[in-house]
Amino acid sequence: MTTTAPSPAEESTRLRRSVTGPLLFLFILGDVLGAGVYALVGVMSDAAGGMFWLPLLVALAMALLTAASYAELVTKYPRAGGSAVFAERAFRRPLISFLVGFSMLAAGVTSAAGLSLAFAGAYLGEFLDVPAVPAAIVFLLLVALLNARGIKESLRANLVMTAIEVSGLLLVVVLGAVVLGRGDGDLSRLTQLPDGVGLGSAVLAGSLIAYYSFVGFETSANIAEEVRDVRRVYPRALFGALLVAGVVYLLIAVVAPTAVSPAQLSGSTGPLLEVVRAAGGVPLRLFAVVALIAVANGALLTMIMSSRLAFGMAEQGLLPSVLGRVLPGRRTPWVAIVATTAVAMVLTTTATLEDLASTVVLLLLFVFLSTNLAVLVLRKDRVAHSHYRAWTALPVLAIVSCLVLLTQQEAFHWLLAGALLAVGVVLYLVTRRVSAPTEGSVASEVSSGTAHTG
């Protein structure tokens, strides 16, 4: 249910409402159509063979369930942004709100580590023959230097990068169709599963990785206050962007295994490059540049937002105050940049791209569980304006879907996520002993950050 009349909350905002429906759609699409798909096609193929289109469908359905909860909460509280805000409003427990916010921070740093490994894989290999981990560390260092200079990414810049990312994916679709059209493809691969793996296991394992490709939509809640007629526009842009991303991903999932064997895809750190190679006619280095730009932009955006989130939480007394220090000239949070970059560098040496992607999903599943529960808890909270309201069954099913995906996580992913959250809890408790945070400060600051460029 929506309305076109602005609410008092919308009218009184100090922010400029400059984000139109099309811009919001492209913002969400850019976040969802992130760099992950350029590297994770091979991982999904390893889990589900040529049938990884099915886990993608399942993951899309799961993402849409949780998106319904965000649509309700964002349109119900148009001045609030972010899952921690909803947790604060619903549960009134500062530690819970902090953990939701810190989970987003940890997911962002972990995602950047995974993207750095993707950058250092086969796409970079078209230009340089260097070991992956050292190359990933150097890449993160370069990202940190750019971050420290004060890189600002506007929606227009996001539009350009989205165009590059989408053009690369559409090129793969066209080239895959060319391979199939000339008789070199094999449609029967779309029903092939890995040896010794049943359909149910393949779908669940593949869905866990596929889910990573759809997350990113949740960050749109952070700009709700800058969207014109947010209660009417937001649900349309959110669901529309997810569906368009789903169509693009499914096209990739159809053409990739028909053009290239699933075994070849799963054995490559640049799986889409294998499709380009099989089709011919397009310089491999040209496509590698497109892929590297997509991955680099995703990592840069993620680290910018992660460092700003750490800085904001330090400013509110939720993390050590040293993270709030800025460079005198650039006025960038250099300590937060150094800290988040250092953690990402360590993560590149301890886990693979698949492990890091799964850990990002694990951390975000806790965030999504909180948001889906918050929808149900806040149903008793009435507001003066009309808003989108999800069918009650949707957040319930979303909770079930999150729990199902949690059961697919390996012990190492729980250990890695648990270690990151444990560090956060320790920092939180130590910081509280030094300076007690003001009530509601968690929600006011974590809403300014994001966790994933998918």
TrEMBL record:
MF annotations from Gene Ontology: transmembrane transporter activity
UniProt-recorded name of the protein: Amino acid permease
Superkingdom: Bacteria
Its main localization is membrane
Q: Which keywords has UniProt assigned to this entry?
A: Cell membrane, Membrane, Transmembrane, Transmembrane helix
**Residue ranges crossing the lipid bilayer per the database entry:** 23-45, 51-74, 95-124, 130-147, 159-179, 199-217, 238-260, 286-311, 332-353, 359-378, 390-406, 412-430
Instruction: Tell me any Pfam family this protein matches.
Output: AA_permease_2
Can you list the GO cellular component terms from the UniProt entry? plasma membrane
Query: What Gene3D superfamilies would the database entry show?
Result: Amino acid/polyamine transporter I
Q: Where in the cell is it found?
A: Cell membrane
Membrane protein topology class: Multi-pass membrane protein
